[in-house]
Design brief:
The strands form four sheets. This protein has a six-stranded mixed sheet. β13, α12 and β14 (364-365) form a beta-alpha-beta unit. With 366 residues, the protein is of the alpha+beta class. It has helices spanning 18-27, 32-41, 65-70, 85-99, 124-135, 160-163, 169-184, 189-195, 204-212, 256-263, 321-338, 351-358; strands at residues 7-8, 45-50, 52-57, 139-143, 149-152, 186-187, 216-219, 228-231, 243-245, 284-289, 292-302, 307-315, 343-346, 364-365. α4 (85-99) packs across α5 and α11 (321-338) packs across α12.
Length: 366
């Protein structure tokens, strides 16, 4: 994760929470409990608002200080309408100082504003803890098996060297862009800005400084309409092999314009699209083979029946369908084993899906 610099959190559990899949795509099978112990147990990582809610190295704590200081709850946040808000928020912090790490369930219930249809169904104590987290008064010390956050004071989690560091905003933004460039290798201004969700209008002076110091080089990339910036640490491998299924929130594809520019791959998440209007499926994962994205599959973990469901499978134009199906079958088998699912069921809604099913001997299909 040090190489990525940021790991976006997403707990949609149709298949497996997306951040677990990002790690699996790079390392293969690993123990998720061990991952949690590594992230939350040694002071090397922390959750922050970086690229959305994310896991970042604790060295990024001071780099995001200006964001925490500028945080204000949205107009829809019930904390805004809470009577004696400041006194309540102060009392929450006092309880954490007195009792140690807490979850929302450890705080006394408080009546909040009447909910409207579509509102997030969070308790007032949870909203309060989230407020303190966004402001930096609290950090996430752990995640329970049900993914619930455990909150603690920063000084109990973040190493003192990072707590006491006070870079200015320009220095912090420059370092965030440096980390983004190192993670991507080559990128446009907008690619660099999106990595830590910075405004593209704010980054040109910092990019110019990185160019001047030699960390970035300006390059032209065939087919790109904007200049590219090459990290001094980037290397071009002789070849790119292997294959991997990618999370919808993998840095390879999370900025959709970049994915389209690099791979000619148009990708959108259709979770929030009405079923009748979906083109590809509910939870669709891109499939990388070599240096291209060659297919996409709509997957679901049927935990009750211990099956990995392939609800739809689509190949990209101009690829070797047979080779793609064979490699995808290998990855799906590996994924099902990691998720302790005993079989793979393929829905035969396309010629490519039938080819994929044939590459999975002994698996069910319909």
């Amino acid at each position: 994760m040090q190489t990525l610099g940021v790991l976006q959190l997403d707990y949609v559990n149709v298949l497996v929470p997306a951040h677990y899949l990002v790690v699996w795509s790079r390392l293969g099978a690993y123990e998720r409990k061990r991952f949690n112990r590594h992230v939350y147990g040694n002071g090397e990582y922390t959750e922050q608002w970086a690229h959305e809610a994310s896991i970042v190295p604790t060295s990024a704590w001071p780099l995001l200080a200006h964001r925490r200081a500028a945080y204000e709850p949205s107009q829809y946040n019930p904390i805004r309408k809470l009577r004696k808000r400041n006194a309540y928020l102060a009392a929450v912090l006092d309880q954490v100082r007195r009792d140690g790490a807490v979850t929302a369930g450890d705080l006394p219930p408080v009546p909040g504003p009447k909910r409207k249809p579509g509102d997030w169904h969070r308790s007032v104590p949870r909203w309060a803890l989230e407020y303190h987290f966004a402001r930096g008064d609290l950090v996430v010390a752990d995640r329970l098996p049900n993914f619930q956050r455990v909150y603690a004071l920063p000084e109990r989690i973040i190493p003192q060297e990072h707590l006491s560091a006070t870079p200015g905003k320009e220095e912090a933004d420059r370092e965030l862009l440096r980390r983004a460039a190192d993670a991507m290798g080559i990128a446009t201004r907008r690619d660099l800005a999106d990595y830590f969700r910075m405004s593209p209008r704010d980054v040109p002076p910092r990019i110019a400084e990185l160019v001047e110091e030699g960390h970035l080089s300006t390059v032209e990339v065939e087919g790109w309409q904007e200049p590219g910036y090459l990290s001094s640490g980037a290397s071009l491998p002789r070849s790119i092999g292997g294959a991997s299924l990618l999370s919808p929130f993998d840095p390879v594809v999370w900025y959709r314009p970049r994915a389209e520019r690099l791979f000619n791959f148009h990708y959108r998440i259709e979770i929030y699209v009405p079923e009748a209007k979906r083109k590809w499926g509910y939870y669709v994962l891109p499939f990388r083979m070599g240096d291209g994205i060659v297919a996409r599959v709509d997957l679901k973990a049927d935990r009750k029946n211990a099956r990995l469901l392939v609800l739809a499978a689509h190949e990209e134009p101009g690829i070797s369908r047979r080779q793609c199906a064979e490699q995808l079958a290998i990855e799906l088998t590996s994924l099902s084993q990691w998720l302790t699912l005993e079989s793979i069921h393929v829905s035969l809604h396309s010629d490519f899906a039938r080819m994929l099913a044939a590459a999975l001997p002994g698996q069910s299909q319909s």
